[in-house]
Amino acid sequence: MMRMNAPNNRFKRYAILSAMFVLLIILGAHFLLSDAFLLRHVFSPPLVLPILNMLFLGIGFLIASYLAARSYLNIGSPGLLSFGSGALVFGLNGMISGWFMESPAGVNAVVTLYNLCSLLSGLFYLSGAAMILIDKPNEKRLIRRKGKLAVGYAGVVLVVGLLIAATRYGWFPVFYTPAQGFSVFRQVIISNAILLLLISGLILWLGQLKFKSDFVFWHALALILIAEGLLGIAIARSVGGILGWTGRLAQYLGGIYLIISVVRAVRERSLDEMLAELLKPGSLHTSVFENSFDGIVVAVCEGLILSANPQASRMLGYPEAELRRMSMDDLLKGGRPAVPHFLEKTGPKERYRGELVFTRKSGTCFPADVSCSAFEDSSGKELLAFVLRDISRQKEAEAAMRYNMERYELLSSTGHELLHASEPNGVLHALCIKAMDFLGCNTFFNYMIDPVQGRLHLNAYAGIAPEQALEIEWLDYGAAICGYVAEKGSAMIAEHIGDNQDARVVLAKRLEIRAYACNPLLNVDGTAIGTLSFGARTRDAFSAEDLSLMRTITNLLAMAIVRMRHEEELRRSRADLAKANEELERKVQSRTKELTNAVQALKTTNEKLNAYSDQLRSLAGEITMAEHRERKRLAIMLHDGLQQLLAAAKLQVGYLGDQEDDDGHRRSALEVEHLLGEAIQMSRDLTAELSPPILHRGDLQDGLKWLARWMLEKHRLEVNLEAENISVLNDTIKIMLFETVRELLFNVVKHSAVQRAQVDLRKTGSDKLQIMVRDEGVGFDPAILQSPETAGRGFGLFSIRERLDLIGARMSIESSPGKGSRFTIAAPLGLTQEAKMHSVGGDFPPRKAAGRVRLLVADDHAALRASLCQMLAGEQDIEIIGEAQNGAEAVRLAQALKPHIILMDLSMPQMDGIEATRIIHRSFPEICIIGMSMYEETEHMQTMQVAGAAGYVLKSTGKGDLLKAIRACIQE
Questions:
Q1: Contacts of 70 by beta carbon, 8 Å cutoff, 6+ apart
Q2: Under a CB-based contact definition with an 8 Å cutoff, are residues 135 and 199 in contact?
Q3: Sign of CA dihedral 798, 800, 805, 811
Q4: Are 856 and 893 in contact (CB under 8 A)?
Q5: What does the pLDDT read at residue 519?
Q6: Per-residue pLDDT at 756
Q7: What is the b/e burial string over 296-332, where b = at least 16 CB atoms within 10 angstroms of the residue's CB?
């Protein structure tokens, strides 16, 4: 028999050692490994967690609940019913909770359901142990046992179902968030679950020492391991970390031991026989008393302490022998105001629950959560049992939370008022008074730098008399603490000023200030625009939290002041833009008037027509080209000047919004950013109307496509364009033809009384093209163009013909009243010799010089694209041929423009840079793609390279590195 039991006993020893080893691993990892290592995500493939929970926890506990139910029906022990309910709860927990990982609530749902079910299971297990300890009588009648079993197990299933529903719909407080980790409420829940399961396991363990039962041994060890596993999960730094998985493995090992206990139950005495002996009172009470995590004190009512467990001795700092010579009055120094009525007038089975302050032997005090019960011993003497739990850390956490909430409310209200104030000075004084009161300070000073005086001026203050403020109204740079901070642009903290011999604190001493902190108000470029300081007369130093709050309030005030100044600059920019528009209109009217006068003079002087015809054509061409150059110059000025300033302001406001944690501040920053975007769009629209960029970047058909869209947007004229792909090498021809088509379409808008026109562009020979503009409107009699009476009302066709003559082009007119009009323009692809003689405006630079690299920029940030294009435009060997604002547009432009190199942003709307790179590289492997991103991680570079990118640069890199990457592609 001994030989048969030897392997079993050895296996049990190994099992006990495994439980101890698991606990050592969990505690060692918690105290010895770094937070960075513990935060690392180890292993979390989908469906693994629910499957493991179901196999190792769900099945074993469900079988155990079945055995407990069968045993309860046999003997009627209420402890068995409670044990079975606990096993049923944990079994359902193991079967169900893990599958919530795939739900919308994700990890929070799993953590919530698992922890609540663990706590409920622990309550059932411990209640079963309590029923055994108090020797609660068995249920004698079988019909009542069946009813209680059905109601109990059905109630358990119903409660678990309610927990699942509440978890599914988010009715519980948040247990876990990715940003902040596990909540305090979750830690309280899981800590209680650990305690309950551990005590239940210990009770079963003590029972197996008495009964020598394998079932009880393995069941107790399973509960202890599950409690250890919950401990590992409770102290884990992150979901999926090494501590969390160690805790889960401990629980799975406990599940294996539970399955072993079920197997053993079949081979040994019945569960009824084993647990019936637990109903007898014995040494279990003493074990729970000695091993409780809470302090337990038993005393005679209004008398001496009879007994205290080791935890109470450690908590109070007294040995048990010394405690027996004391009363509860000695531990509750200063009386017992919270429980006088209870302690003075008690009766059997009366209870009290509350918080009391106890005094240790060292003289220090600590708050404790106290449960007190009155009962009688066998002789009828009234006794009191106190259960103490030290809640010092909880109180400290609550105090810290209250401070943080008050601090958050102060910062929130400060930021809100500053953001919505049109003038920060209007609310500055009240906000600083509020901050001063929160900080426990007695004074504050706000100095602003006066650029005209070159000194600091006292803008706001509190805590000093007006005559004292008058004395310090102006400060020089470097004078006193505020002058020094304004000069250096860095904060200065002066503490213990009474003992400080620094000359800069003399002014603070004179104002009887003992501690002083001054922070600079900084502009976006880091230069100081003023200072904000707080002083205390009742203490000699500030805490780190106080200094941090002062810096935050100073930064909020600085941002408000800078925002106000930027808004003022924006208003000035808009005024400048309006002035530029007025000037442009004046110049256009002036030039138009000059041209009209010149044409009228030529018409009225018929005899001089032949002599001055060439001069008139030259003058008309010069005016047209001068007007175009002026429009282009203004467009460039708007684009390169005003639009860049507006874009920079928008970036700055966007950056400030990104840095702000408060939702209200972020929304206000977005509103300002949106207004800047609208200003930029208005400037772009004006630029396009003055001189369409597409006309200089693309061919004539590109300009006509833009014109068709523009006429539809601005004048609701639908232009049906049919254009062949014709490359006009001379910009003079392209501009003249474009302006001609635009004026003809304007005539359609003004005179034809229709909202549709047709424009055809085709090549009619090797060196000629034809443009036809027609409409189905009211038409007119072309003869009126030759009539002297209507010569001045010819729809501008005379000037159109004169301009066309300059480039060797001709225009024919077909029209009749009520049948619409058709204008046919025949033009050469290049300037004729006669046209060259009349081309006073000169050609524009060709679109692409020989040998230059054609480059396409793809980025969804317009300001960044503009900055890149501007930066690369100065390179002689690089030509910017297009810009794309998303991946889909980049693919389309790559197909249309065939660039040599594409600068591709990694993250863009509609289609990201990775997918666009993959499509372009597959279709055009000869195009060199350089990825751009703000991300420094190598994974992003590798992803772009796999997609087909030849290079990768950071957006924060310098011009040299970018050119190096581009020229590396050129060499390849």
A1: 271
A2: no
A3: negative
A4: yes
A5: 93
A6: 92
A7: bbbbeeeeebbebbebbbebbebeeeebeebebeebb
Angle, alpha carbons 47-51-55 (nearest 5°)? 175
pLDDT in the model for residue 889: 92
Residue 949: pLDDT above 70?
Answer: yes
Tokens coding 159: 């409660």
**204, 122 contact by CB (below 8 A):** no
Q: Which CATH superfamily is domain 853-971 in?
A: Response regulator (3.40.50.2300)
CB 782 within 8 A of CB 798: no
pLDDT band at 71 (very low <50, low <70, confident <90, very high): confident
* Nearest of 168, 196, 80 to residue 128 by alpha carbon: 80
The amino acid at residue 401 is: M
Taking alpha carbons only, the member of 892, 885, 952, 951 closest to residue 919 is 892
Q: What is the 3-state secondary structure (H, E, C) of 610-654?
A: HHHHHHHHHHHHHHHHHHHHHHHHHHHHHHHHHHHHHHHHHHHHH
d(CA 499, CA 509) in angstroms, rounded, equals 10
- Tokens at residue 549, please? 């709050």
How many Å apart are CA 242 and CA 43, to the nearest integer? 9
One fold for 293-390 and 421-542? yes
Of 255-269, 765-779, 830-844, the range with the highest mean pLDDT is 765-779
Domain 42-285 has CATH 1.20.1070: yes
Length of the chain (residues)? 972
CA 672 – CA 276 distance, rounded (Å): 77
Reference 295, options 203, 207, 401, 372; nearest CA is: 372
* CATH class held by domain 693-838: alpha beta
Question: Angle, to 10 degrees, between the axis of helix 544-604 and the axis of helix 643-659?
Answer: 160
The CATH topology of domain 421-542 is Beta-Lactamase (3.30.450)
